């Protein structure tokens, strides 16, 4: 039996992972610890096979007054947790990094295709705080301490937070939507948690780039959701010159830009059990 400690209480990923592992009660024992105050430092990590560090600030902020907080939580806390795990004999440390370390989305009409040779280039202190932790923790790996870095794209699923549920909320009312072609890497929560499970089972170290089998266009999220709900939608053509003007807006590019992992990056086992459209069906059922 694998004994796993999830560092970060009530996180979407951590809670979902614990629920996923409950399918195999004889194979995994899971504990979760709160990282908000310093009491976690008093808990012994000895005896755990794996520490899965999910604690962190998960969304972008432009508020400079929060910059130090991002580095304290996303970098310093993560590094300190990894150091404690290594000192106390944990065999494997899994760190939740992010695709955000590769910077902003490309303007509409262009694509950012990330390969193994693409250098990280964070666009803000959120991305930089994750990258600094990512790189520091990688250096701790040795023959007795396996380090597994997860760099997922957008993770979505029932109960998730962030921009994806906002997009589905828009889909409820969007009778007309811009017909703009783009491609994005995303991953459904069950696919991600299965990927992490395989990384644990195989004691795999290194950097992992899990994603769904299919790339997704923003318009397809809207169209699929409305189809599931039995609602019609009209896709409105957008002239190229209008897209070019709007591509000067970061918000427009965030909604309709392209950012994806090359497919060969994500060949790390059979973890894609849920197709994109099936994930939307589940989210629609959850939302009611």
Written description of the protein model:
The protein has 288 residues and is an alpha/beta fold. It has one domain: NAD(P)-binding Rossmann-like Domain (Rossmann fold), CATH 3.40.50. Helix content is 36%, strand content 16%. The chain contains 9 helices and 12 strands. It has helices at 12-21, 67-87, 125-138, 163-171, 189-201, 218-228, 240-246, 250-256, 276-287, and strands at 2-7, 28-33, 50-53, 92-96, 112-114, 146-150, 154-156, 176-178, 186-188, 206-208, 234-236, 259-261. The strands form 4 sheets. A 6-stranded parallel β-sheet has the order 2-1-3-4-6-10, sandwiched between helices. Strand 1, helix 1 and strand 2 (28-33) form a beta-alpha-beta unit. Helix 1 crosses helix 5 (189-201), helix 2 (67-87) runs parallel beside helix 3 (125-138) and helix 4 (163-171) crosses helix 6 (218-228). The longest helix is centred in the N-terminal third of the chain and has 21 residues, at 67-87. The model has no long low-confidence stretch (mean pLDDT 92).
Total strand count, please? Answer: 12
Strand percentage, roughly? Answer: 15-25%
Order of helices and strands: EHEEHEEHEEHEEHEHEHHEH
CA radius of gyration: 20 Å
Give the CATH level 1 class. Alpha Beta
Biggest sheet character? 6 strands, parallel
Any guess at the CATH architecture? 3-Layer(aba) Sandwich
Query: What coarse outline follows from CA principal-axis ratios?
Result: globular
Termini gap: 38 Å
The stretches of 5 or more residues where confidence is low (pLDDT under 50) are none
| Structural classification | alpha/beta
Tally of individual helices:
9
